[in-house]
Design a protein that fits this description.
GO terms for molecular function: GTP binding; GTPase activity. The protein is an alpha/beta fold. It has 21 helices and 13 strands. A 7-stranded mixed beta sheet has the order 7-6-5-4-8-10-9, sandwiched between helices. Strands 1-2 form a two-stranded antiparallel sheet. A two-stranded antiparallel ribbon has the order 3-11.
Length: 590
């Protein structure tokens, strides 16, 4: 064998000698550039390190983290930039009541700064290049103002749309529409409502009308809908309740019934065509004449009512009517026909397009805007997807000859939120693209009671340990472990697949299978949304395997586990002085 290479060891010795000096115990006081070392790097007398009086001018990231933790008096609970070491058993991502109160005060103080971008003024003399440049400048100014608000106040905003082309689509929809409808989710209407959009609509034209369409109203009870109707009536906002899912099912049922009736009428006509007498034909002629006379009377009355309404509008301005007349909203869920009639009657002023009422539809992604259009058209006209951002450009669709729908792409408006998890569980951010599943799962478990989760999914969650709050919510680890093992979502090493389980639970929450409805301001949430009582366990006599108990339990160590370990330990010998006789097994005293 050849000679062993010791270059690595020699290099190490060289580095040590270069730093601390070699031979005779003499310390080297010069570095490579012949300058003196820092005084703390040499022992020039008293060992100041024993008194923790070393001069610290530079630290590595890890050293700085340890120092911060030491100063804070905590064990690895300090923050370093955007890195935070937390206890996995705590409610990660949830705000306390005190933190929510502080956030609410900040939101209320700066709510006037949350605006949408305005289109700069233009006229026939403005060239397309100048208009585009002005739009870019205004848009940049708007983005800088929101970024400054976030930086100075430390608030969290929704990830609002940062593509100028999307806002250009909104500007065109507002300018072309007579009625601008915001479609919101019935479970949390105020999160999806943009007050500044209503102001912008009135800035464009006083003749335009704002309307809020509360979609997915089938998730709410009659009492909950009436509560929301009273709230919006109090603040003077017109709303209607609608359910695209119910409307689509009703349209399919009506179509089937109409087909059956048409077939029956055709068969009756075939049977009666040969046996119709002349006297019956004369009676039918008289009925047709009577119907025509009634139609003329109805048209004449409607014409007189329109003239009277125009005179009232000229005497009283629309602004005065909106200011002094109380808005009364109904809690009824409208059908497709009733909603179309409401579209036709809501706007009485001059139209953007003559003799055609243009309805602009605006809303967040995944609030059911495309589904609403499809149910109104009674056939699929707009592509529908549960992924936010499906519609990329505005489109116009004639609902009837006098009603034109103008669909705007789904836009996330800037608004205040408490956490990013709040946006995930409300469908604003796509679930499949989330990076951290723990905060949104903790938020879901804080909203949905323990017994509702157990009844929904058919498993038992571990109870709180001794010394913990017995009314606390289950942690994300407990919920995901139980769901993963119950569904068989396991990883390669035999542990529950928590990220996969989290996606399924969050999608159930977004789709309404785990239903939670927010109450209006100044209304008690516990009275607004009540929960069903606990059902009996489905398999109360089922024997739970030890592996499932360990998987659901997680890494928690209870006092019962400590007792088992202690009492199962056996002594290895008799506690007397002596020895065991060889071959006899008897204790022999010495």
């Amino acid at each position: 064998m050849g000679k062993k290479n010791k270059s690595g060891q020699d290099l190490g010795r060289s580095l040590i000698k270069d730093r601390f000096g070699g031979g005779g115990g003499r310390a080297k006081k010069f570095v490579g550039d012949k300058s003196m070392l820092h005084t703390t790097e040499i022992q020039d007398g008293y060992d100041w390190g024993r008194l923790n009086l070393q001069s610290v001018t530079e630290e590595s990231s890890f050293q700085e983290f340890l120092s911060t933790a030491e100063l804070a008096g905590t064990e690895f609970q300090a923050e370093k930039l955007n890195i935070k070491f937390v206890n996995p058993k705590s409610n990660v991502g949830l705000l306390t009541d005190a933190e929510k109160a502080v956030a609410n005060s900040v939101h209320e103080k700066h709510k006037d700064l949350i605006k949408i971008p305005r289109r700069p003024p233009w006229n026939s003399q403005t060239t397309p290049e100048e208009l585009k440049q002005n739009e870019k400048d205004k848009f940049l100014e708007w983005r800088r103002s929101l970024a400054q608000l976030q930086e100075e106040q430390g608030v969290i905003l929704t990830p609002f749309e940062k593509n100028l082309e999307f806002w250009r689509q909104l500007w065109r929809v507002v300018e072309r529409s007579d009625v601008v409808i915001q479609i919101v989710d019935a479970r949390n209407p105020l999160l999806f409502r943009c007050e500044d959009l209503e102001k912008y609509v009135k800035e464009v034209s006083k003749e335009k009308i704002n309307l809020i369409l509360i979609n997915k109203a089938d998730f709410l009870t009659e009492h909950q809908r009436q509560t929301w109707a009273n709230y919006f009536s109090k603040i003077g906002i017109n709303i209607v309740f609608f359910s695209a899912l119910l409307a689509s099912s009703e349209c399919e049922t009506i179509t089937e019934e109409n087909d059956v009736e048409n077939q029956a009428e055709e068969s009756e006509d075939l049977l009666d065509s040969e046996g119709t007498s002349k006297s019956e034909e004369s009676t039918l002629d008289e009925l047709r004449i009577s119907v025509k006379k009634l139609e003329h009377l109805v048209e004449d009355s409607a014409h007189k009512l329109d003239i009277l309404n125009d005179k009232i509008q000229t005497i009283l301005k629309t602004e005065d009517l909106e200011e002094f007349l109380n808005v009364t909203n109904s809690s009824k869920v409208l059908t497709c026909d009733e909603l179309i009639q409401h579209f036709r009657s809501i706007h009485k002023g001059p139209k953007v397009t003559e003799n055609v009422t243009t309805i602009g539809l605006v809303g967040y992604p995944n609030v059911g805007k495309s589904s609403t259009i499809n149910s109104l058209m009674s056939e699929k006209k707009v592509s529908v997807s549960s992924t936010p951002g499906k519609t990329k450009h505005f489109q116009t669709l004639y609902l009837e000859k006098d009603i034109l729908l103008c669909d705007c792409p789904g836009l996330v408006m800037p608004s205040f939120v408490y956490t990013k998890a709040e946006m995930i569980i409300n469908g604003i951010l796509p679930i499949d693209q989330m990076r951290d599943h723990v905060p949104p799962i903790n938020l879901v478990s804080s909203l949905i009671p323990r017994h509702v989760l157990e009844d929904k999914y058919g498993f038992m969650l571990p109870l709180p340990m001794e010394g913990e709050d017995q009314e606390r919510c289950p942690t994300a680890e407990e919920l995901l472990n139980a769901y993963g093992y119950n569904r068989g979502y396991m990883t390669a090493n035999g542990q529950p697949d928590n990220p996969r389980a989290a996606r399924y639970i969050l999608k159930d929450f977004v789709n309404g299978k785990l239903l939670y409805s927010h109450a209006p301001p100044e209304i008690d949430q516990n009275e607004f949304h009540t929960w069903p009582e606990r059902r009996k366990p489905i398999n109360s006599s089922r024997i739970v395997p030890p592996r499932e108990i360990r998987a659901v339990k997680g890494s928690r160590i209870s006092t019962e586990d400590i007792d088992k370990v202690f009492f199962r330990s056996q002594s290895q010998g008799v506690h007397v002085k002596g020895r065991i006789g060889i071959g006899t097994g008897r204790l022999v005293n010495v």
